[in-house]
Amino acid sequence: MATTTVPQTMKALIIQEGHRVAVQDHPVPPVGDNDVLIKTVSVAQNPTDWKHVDTIGVPGTILGCDFSGYVVKTGKDVSTPKVGDHVAGFVHGGAFTDEGAFAEYVKTPADLVWVVPENTVNHDQAATLGCAFWTAAQALFHKTRLGLVEPPAKAAGNEWIFVYGGSSAVGMFAVQLAHLAGYKVVTTASPRNFDYVKSLGADAVFDYKDPDVVKKIKDATGDSITKAVDAISLKDSQRISAEALAPSGGKVVLVLQPIPDATNRKDVKFFPTLIYTALGRAFDFGPSTRFPVSPEDRAQIVEFLKKVPQLIKDGAIKTPPVKLWEGGLAAIPDGLQYMREGKVSAEKIVYHV
């Protein structure tokens, strides 16, 4: 087992009783035979973080999903990455006592991190390529989701894909990945973000508040869309995503649960996707929902992650603008509140640990 000196305890942001969090001393997670231990440098924030605090997070567990740092210890069966490598990844924060990103050290299986190529993205940028990036890859490329052609391969023809919420974290990565795979992309955003989503590869973008948005999407795409990702997945976005599909119907992948009366269309299939299923651990999602291990979901993301270093080296993926929130782990509750209040738009909040 390769290692550098690692302490027994670390500072970590721990979920408390009463739906709050606090920085505490916490045991450094033990490293299994196929795991790596990472000394975190930067961590990024997601809506799932505050939602775990407010709803289903388990007291005593480590909050946080997205991280970038250096490998300090590897399990005996790990050949890559190596101690000293700069890696980034995604873990299930708020569910386990030995897994969570908002901490000085993160443990995760070695095949669920990717090595950041030298002279490409920094730790802040690498940390943003977690929950939202992986979710977009699962939604687009998993064979039971949209099953699109996966980069570096290219789709034949000029098939249109609709991404609702192109400037959201999941949406901006979905736009880029679908574009990289050779699809034409139509999306929605606020007018202030039109130029931004076009710079990511969107061929057409419309204001989601425009009462004629569905007609404009259909006109722009020849009413040909059969596949969509709804990166917002609230009632109105589910309605628009369903109505934007061609007369033959199709499939909309959601990042939240389907809302029963969002659409009357019987020819549109809503399919929720949840990236935690890619991590290879069974978990509870609230008091009554148990997700078993999904080897298929894990295998899909492991294969995708093998391609990420080259995509980054090629400059094919743009990371979102970073809003560096000063104050380290102790400042995260303030950042969570800022996000709760809906103040985040087309940027990722990042902290230095």
UniProtKB/TrEMBL annotation:
The Enoyl reductase (ER) domain extends over 18-351
The record's InterPro entries line, in alphabetical order, gives:
ADH-like_C, ADH-like_N, ER, GroES-like_sf, NAD(P)-bd_dom_sf, Trans-enoyl_RdTase-like
Q: Which GO terms label this protein's molecular function in UniProt?
A: oxidoreductase activity, acting on NAD(P)H
* Gene3D superfamilies found in the cross-reference section: Medium-chain alcohol dehydrogenases, catalytic domain (3.90.180.10), NAD(P)-binding Rossmann-like Domain (3.40.50.720)
- SMART domains the UniProt entry points to: PKS_ER
| Official protein name in the record | GroES-like protein
